[in-house]
Amino acid sequence: MTKDQALKILDELGNSPNMVKHALACGFVMRALARKLITHLSELKTAEDDWELVGLLHDADYEMTNKSLDLHTEETTKKLKELDVDQSIIDAIHGHCDKTPRETLMAKAIYACDELTGLIVACALVQPEKKLQFVKVESVLKKFKDKSFAVGASRDEIKTCESELNILLEEFIGIALKAMQEHSDELGL
Ligand SMILES: [Fe+2]
């Protein structure tokens, strides 16, 4: 499955521009996390592509299923099965909303970075320039600790970067922020 096919699914399932940006952001961060966590070079190329697909598609039917947790991921799964994608991709997508145990690094990575991308976007938007390039790791870390800021971004989920991925929070924020800054044009920030 290619990135273009994933973007086509996002379109077919009627995603809003903001949701597409969330998908793109998670895809960029997942690709960066694959580079950090996959140690066997021979596996990296496929892993980077697969991890990005998980980032792109994990919420693909979130809006069309009206945010119903029961239905969420089911429409996406149907599409992915038609395209015969690897089961590990489907499992990681199910795992991000607790429908399947998160057994692979890919599944653990989307769980940890999903909410962080939202926190980083919120950090960009509170600045006068509203630009990712002005966001610093320290300011994201500070906002992470401020429980009244972006309350929807689950700190517990983000914090699993340490317990499940063995990446310290500060480094994790740095990887995600850099990946998003490198694609700020596509993210419109
Ligand atoms: Fe998400």
UniProtKB/TrEMBL annotation:
- HD/PDEase domain: which residues? 15-128
SMART domains listed in its UniProt record = HDc
Q: Which domain of life is it from?
A: Bacteria
Name under which the protein is recorded:
HD/PDEase domain-containing protein
Q: Which organism is it from?
A: Candidatus Curtissbacteria bacterium RIFOXYA1_FULL_41_14
